[in-house]
UniProtKB/TrEMBL annotation:
This is Transcriptional regulator. It comes from Pseudomonas trivialis. InterPro entries: LysR-type_TF_proteobact-type, LysR_HTH_N, LysR_subst-bd, WH-like_DNA-bd_sf, WH_DNA-bd_sf. Belongs to the LysR transcriptional regulatory family. Keywords: DNA-binding, Transcription, Transcription regulation. PROSITE patterns: HTH_LYSR (PS50931). It holds the Pfam family LysR_substrate. The lineage of its organism: Bacteria, Pseudomonadati, Pseudomonadota, Gammaproteobacteria, Pseudomonadales.
Amino acid sequence: MDRFNAMRVFTRIVELRGFSKAADSLQLPRASVTILIKQLEAHLGVQLLQRTTRQVSPTLDGAAYYQRCVQLLTDLEETEAVFSTQRQNPRGTLSVDMPSGIGRLIVIPALPSFTARYPQIELEIGLNDRPVDLIREGVDCVLRGGLALDESLVARPLAMMDQLTLASPEYLARKGVPTSLEDLVNHQMVEYVSSASGKRFGLEFEVGGELQTVNLPKGLAVNSSDGYFAACEAGFGLIQAPHYHAMRQLAEGTLLEVLPQLAVPKMALTALYPPHRQLSQRVRVFVDWLVERCAQSGTGLQR
């Protein structure tokens, strides 16, 4: 029995809570996964996994063994990277999740430069705004706009994104163009609801060095960035969003900037990953590339 391979299989079963999901993730036959776990439990003389009809969970011994396996596998990967060509040429699959707008408009168009630099890294990109359980879903790294809510993850700041206030031409023709905060009394907004925290966001402005929140009557509430923009373009009210996401609509005239003299707080863009993967060479080079990419002019993150 290859004990390191068995440990790798065991950790994926715990993280994904199932034999079949772990087998698919590791591209192994399910029968091989089952045999490896039986051999591992026999070798250790303890039951590692509790199996039910719905899911698989670690026993008390299994939970303790999982923590040691994660550390050992991480140390092994880092040690091999130090003494092999993997330090210069990391390889393997890297799973990354990010908001659809950042993926479509910022990251994916620039990915050819990353894959040319690291041709042996196979990227799996997920695009959505929902919260992701990195361990259970086998995700190595996520990109998120706004404050990092999970303090158990390692956070790497990438950029502070410029934001602006937007409305559709049809909405402004119907409601009038606001020229001051006082004018907003006659307006409405599209409300953004965070799918991660459930928090509802109004409009925010920086006035005299202080943050001022403006909650207007809502024309519609949505929980995705694409829906947020679609609602604004359909005339449901004002929104505030990162500049990069509005570049096409501004160029085409489907959205217009309003109240340009009133600054909107910048939004943080952050890379997050589990502590046990903070030394992974694949994660490290990808996050370093993101920092480099975000620092470049022309990304659209700053006006």
